[in-house]
Amino acid sequence: MRFAAAPLLPRTGDDPPVTISRDPAREAAERELSKPMYHEHDPSLLQRALNTFWDWVDDLFSAAAGATPGGGFGLLVIILAVVLLGVALWWRLGTPQRIPRSAPALFDDRPRSAAEHRATSEAHAARAHWNQAVQERMRAIVRALEERALLAPHPGRTADEAAAEAGRTLPAHSGRLRSAAHEFDDVTYGGRTADESAYLRLAELDHDLDRTKPLLTNTAHTTPSSNHQGAAT
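The structure corresponding to this sequence follows.
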């Protein structure tokens, strides 16, 4: 950096040399450098903060790479593996949402027949609204069992409760009933998204249940007894 030279006075051979002590010279330089003309192109406060942050990140990764087998390449492989694991979990589980401790009732306050629930489910499926199609098909399954007197009508019943009760009467389908209830809970309360295959599984279960004879465990089998008394003679 160049400073304008001060004009020199003519000197005589008897004048002592002009000297400036260290402190005044430093102060004069600082005053000169503090002028705005020297700082027009300095980075902003935000830019300096970002530069400091990236320097810290660079130091951190350099230290991690030095401690990782394989150096920088090994660190990159680990980072990619973690990212891929996170993507896989998100794809499999969906967006995490808080599931209520007790699931609400399966049906709303407006009673409908099994045929009405089936028709609504098929209409949703035709528009590829798989969540609503799965929900209505599960309601059709439970309502059909109530209409066949295989389940007692219970307005506050949950899907899991209905599956457990129906499984005792239809043991051959107990596993599929539980899976259907889980499908219903996942899309209704768990934030999951249903697909066509989930809907088709419930539709097939609905069809099979309609053709299955229940296992009647409460039928009483009695054997009449006969008492023979001899006539008086």
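The longest helix spans residues 45-67.
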